[in-house]
Amino acid sequence: MRNNIIPYNPKLKEYARQLRNNSTLAEVLLWKNIKNEALGVQFHRQVPMLDYIVDFYCHELMLAIEIDGDSHDHRYFEDLNRQNKLENLGVRFIRFTDGDVKNNMFSVSMSLEEKVKSLKTPLKSPQGDNPFDLRQTLIEIHNRIKPFIHKTPVLTSQLLNEKAGCNLFFKCENFQKMGAFKMRGAANAILSLSEEEKQRGVVTHSSGNFAQAVSLAAQKLGVKAYIVMPENAPQVKKNAVKTYEGEIIECESTPQAREATANKIKEEKRASFFHPSNQDEVIYGNSTAAIELLEEQPNLDIILAPIGGGGLIAGTALATHYFSKKCKVIGAEPKAVDDAYRSLISGKIETNTTFATIADGLRTHLGDRNFPIIQKHVEKIICVEEDEIINAMQLIWERMKIIVEPSSAVAFAAVLKNKEEFATKNVGIIVSGGNVDVKNLPF
Questions:
Q1: Is 182 one of the catalytic residues?
Q2: Per residue in 267-290, pLDDT tens?
Q3: CA 288 to CA 185: how far, in whole Å?
Q4: Fewer CB near the last or first residue (10 Å), C or N of the chain?
């Protein structure tokens, strides 16, 4: 994130001061309060970031605090646009009004303290100070979620082995409850809540598999689930959520609308928010698919997983790092949405401007929790073309007689594209899911 901070600019500083004339007192009051509170993290004032100056910023948590003074009224949407740019890079925001800070400092202090606590984890990095700490944590998580998931099969095909020139082992999460690996992360996230938090319910925004996973996991555990879905989400997916007793709240089909609606429900219901891919509990739950694969096939040389939001491959990478001595992890991504590939090259989270891929589950971008894991533990990312995805999907359907969605075929497509790299090796492939519209197949 620090690579995205621009050098200090006096003119920009002066411009920001003019905009914030009416909130200067509020900023001073809050700054004194932050200095007096033992929050365990360090905030900085007036930090320039991209074309924006953040009132307060914590590098450790990537958390920004904004004071919206009276002079911001006519610039509110401009501020939000800038905020959205930074959020795409993983920055989190909490906003207070000028009046909140001046008139109700106790409430502001409590809100900030809760936000800091929610973002801090016992592990200072995704890998932890002691690697055995996280290894044991992943074992405990696996044992905890076992009653709520299937131990999915690992399938092979001699014909596909011959076609790829290596030994393939498909970890078939298309046979998972609700049809995708997402059940693992959702179950662990809910099981991580306190009883009081479970009583208040959970909320997420998703138009696909995670919406179904959270609904089903919540149903099994007796927890209320609020699911924010774009109004143009396929009706079949909405019906699936309703089947699992999730309460659907529709919104406009934009990332901003989804987040705003979810945040509103979180505040109104005091529900716990779950991110589909950029949350530790979700990532750790996802790791259990690769743990099971390595238990059954301990001699794997490589594991491939598709990359969308990064939650699956991050979990796969952690499992491989802690439970195998020689296995490497390689990601697979559609060329049309190659943000993860570019992120590994640039060293910062990149985004896409178009989403024209048949692999609809891989159209999201990475987050600040999974990206460091990917940077450290993923060997490389292979990009594949649309026709290569369709060909791989058709081969799996025809030769293995199983239903997989386009996103699941991306990893196999990467093997077929780079046969020399995988020749004669033992290769594991995480088949992410099988929720596909069989009336609208690409072949």
A1: yes
A2: 999 999 999 999 999 999 999 999
A3: 9
A4: C
